[in-house]
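My main concern about presentation is that the manuscript never shows what a single data entry looks like. For the editor and my fellow referees, an illustration may be useful. For illustration, here is how one protein appears when written out as sequence plus structure tokens:

***
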Amino acid sequence: MSQLSNRWLGVACGVGAGAMWGMVFLAPKATPDASPALMAAGRYLAYGLIAAVLVAPRWKRLTALLTGEAWRALVLLSVLGNLLYYALLVVAVHWAGVSASALIVGMVPVVVALWGLREPGAAPLGRIAPALALAVIAVVLIGHEASHGAPDASGAGEGTRPLWSSLVGLVCAIAALLSWSAYAVFNSRWLDRLPQVSAHDWSLLTGVVTGGLSLGLAVLALFDPPRWAVSDWGLFAGVSVAVAFGASIVGNAFWNRASRLLPMTLMGQMIVFETLFALAYGFLLARRGPTLLEGLAVVLMVASVLLSVRAHGPEVEAER
């Protein structure tokens, strides 16, 4: 397969990951009485169980390929990209809203792209700067709408929240941004270091480790369990399994495949699709279309990805 074909296949995988990951912004709205710890524990226990079943036939062969350092990396990646990130995101969505949370996390492409400038295959800053600028403008437009009362995915205006609640939510969203950016960079590096492990199997191994770590989180969450009826627990279990399979199993597999096909500076732009799908799902839940500025932001986000793909054309290698 040609380099250009690999690039567009990587972009397609990035779109698939974004479509799956966008669901995580709506999960807290489906079970609003669940604590962040319980939401994270439910999702990642389900992720771990599903991953364990899927990877079981290849377990001995895969574990023989891993060193102690690789296992420690899996633990770090499980915390940064799963447990810590999701708990912070749930708090951000509850206290700052879907739009504001998507706004902050939407800055991940910029952070990851800048972080990846020294990685192999990276385009020079001058070539990716226009794409990053469009992404920043798009995020600012979404933030402007959110701060001026545009309804979020729950149908409520962002301005109806207490100031302290919004501030705490925004701080958690920023922490989630940093946590996930670190995960994206370190995960890509480990995929390069272990070419003998497929992208899908690396995702499943991460799931098994995440599931094991989430047992402690589940115990902590159940110290103060919600007073739910049986049907409420059934809804929570259904949401947890749906997010675990869609976002963690399928979404992570798409992401890891893209990570092996695209340079880090372009991988950063793929996270734009998580924001786009989160906004689209939010609009559907709120039964409204985008405002003029939100629509413009979506166009700018798509344009930023296309510019970034173009910036990583064959001529980039000649410049390096």
In short: Residues 153-159 have pLDDT under 50 and may be disordered. The chain is about 80% helix and 0% strand.
